[in-house]
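A reminder from the course coordinator: this example appears on the midterm review sheet, so study it carefully.

Given structure:
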C-alpha cells in the first residue's frame, strides 16, 4: 500500500514543469510511504549520507560522477530543491521506516508527459528489493497525480537489477543508445517505456 501526504500550494505554471491532474499540494512537504520505505524531498539533512554512499562503484552505470567534496553534494541538493519549487524535477531521499538513509530516487520532467524515473540504493542495502519498492511507490504516486502518457527509464544493459525494476512495472525497451557519462564511462543503455498505473 502506498500513502502520500503533503500541504497545499498554488498550482505551478512553469512551461516545462509536470502537468498535474488537480492543483497539487506543496511538493516540499510531500512524503510517499510504502511498506518498508519512505520517500521525501532531498534536503541538507541527507548531505553526509549522500556524499558517503554515492561512490564510484554506485555510479558506474550512471550519468553523474560521485562528488569529490561535500560542497558538490550540497550544490546538488540546492539545485534539486530549486527544480522541485518549479515542479520540474522531484528528487527524493529514500529511508526505511526508522529513518535510516537508503538512497535517492528521482522523477524528471525532461519531456512533456513522459517523465523519467531514476534511482540508486546504497551498497549495503542492495539485494533486498528496496529500490524496486521505492520506484513502485514513486510510479504509483506519479500515475495518480500527474498527466502522463508513459514513463521512461534509461539503464545500462549490464545493470540487471535495475532492468528488473523497469520490467516489473511492465517496461518494454523502446531505444538503445551509447552515452558517455560525466565520469568518462561509456554507457550501453536501453531505454524502457513504462506505462502509468491505472486507477479506476
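Designed residues:
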Amino acid at each position: 500500500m502506498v500513502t502520500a501526504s503533503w500541504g497545499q500550494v498554488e498550482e505551478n505554471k512553469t512551461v516545462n514543469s509536470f502537468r498535474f491532474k488537480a492543483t497539487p499540494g506543496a511538493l516540499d512537504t510531500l512524503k510517499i510511504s510504502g511498506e518498508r520505505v519512505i520517500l521525501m524531498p532531498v534536503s541538507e539533512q541527507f548531505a553526509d549520507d549522500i556524499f558517503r554512499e554515492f561512490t564510484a562503484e554506485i555510479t558506474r552505470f550512471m550519468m553523474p560522477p560521485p562528488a569529490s567534496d561535500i560542497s558538490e553534494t550540497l550544490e546538488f541538493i540546492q539545485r534539486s530543491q530549486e527544480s522541485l519549487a518549479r515542479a520540474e524535477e522531484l528528487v527524493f531521499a529514500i529511508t526505511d521506516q526508522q529513518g535510516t538513509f537508503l538512497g535517492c530516487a528521482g522523477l524528471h520532467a525532461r519531456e512533456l508527459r513522459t517523465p523519467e524515473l531514476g534511482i540508486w540504493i546504497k551498497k549495503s542495502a542492495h539485494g533486498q528489493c528496496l529500490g524496486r519498492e521505492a520506484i513502485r511507490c514513486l510510479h504509483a504516486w506519479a500515475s495518480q497525480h500527474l498527466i502522463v502518457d508513459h514513463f521512461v527509464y534509461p539503464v545500462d544493459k549490464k545493470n540487471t537489477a535495475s532492468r528488473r525494476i523497469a520490467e516489473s512495472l511492465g517496461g518494454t525497451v523502446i531505444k538503445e543508445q551509447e552515452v558517455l557519462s560525466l565520469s568518462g564511462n561509456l554507457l550501453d543503455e536501453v531505454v524502457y517505456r513504462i506505462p502509468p498505473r491505472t486507477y479506476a
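The CA atoms of residues 38 and 99 lie 8 Å apart. The first strand starts at residue 3 and ends at 8.
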